Predict the structure.
Amino acid sequence: MIEVLDNIIIFKLGSFGVNATLFYSWIVMAVLVIGSWLITRRLKTTIEVSKFQTLLEMIITTIRDQIHEVSGDNPAKYLPIMGTFFLFIATTNLMTIIPWFKAPTASLSTTLAFSICVFCAIPYYGIKNAGIKGYLKKFIDPSPIMLPLNILSDFSSTFSLAFRLYGNMLSGAVIASVLMMLAPFLIPIPMQILGLVTGMIQAYIFALLAIVYVSSVAPTEPYVSQNDTKGN
């Protein structure tokens, strides 16, 4: 039976009960913060760098390339939001190999919070890219008749992210639990590997769709990368 993380109280801070969703989210956040500090405290610009710095640079470069490919805009603008989503979901998935750890992304509260962040980021980046008039113009494009549908589209597309991620993470946990009851000695390792691969794909898809939505309003001036400048 799959437990609802929101209903599990780990400990209390006065009259406030900290449920499993918050508790495991804080653990993931602590791992990311401490890990980032350990990796970045001795960054080098020389040829010889640590393996961790090489891994960090590879991850950031890959994320930046994906952002630029999807949005066609300056990747530095969207790196904080996409990088945060990807690293949090990916780290959560990797930590599920720890027996006692429960993925907070298997809670609808977490995925809804992510979707709310994306929903708030859409007008922020839209106004930043094209100004208030340029952002509002998208709601009457191609015709003012489309205004209600375009508004509904923003709501439905962003909040569908929450249910997509929640459903995929929860279904994976349900399937793993059922198979482990049927064949507890043969299934766990293959299921863990499959779960890790699936979780990484979900992290990538969520972050990618988030960028598609927040960069839906193109900037007034096209972005020209340094590589394009050098090529010319």
Notes: DSSP finds seven helices and two strands in the chain. The radius of gyration is 21 Å. Strands lie at 9-13, 16-19.
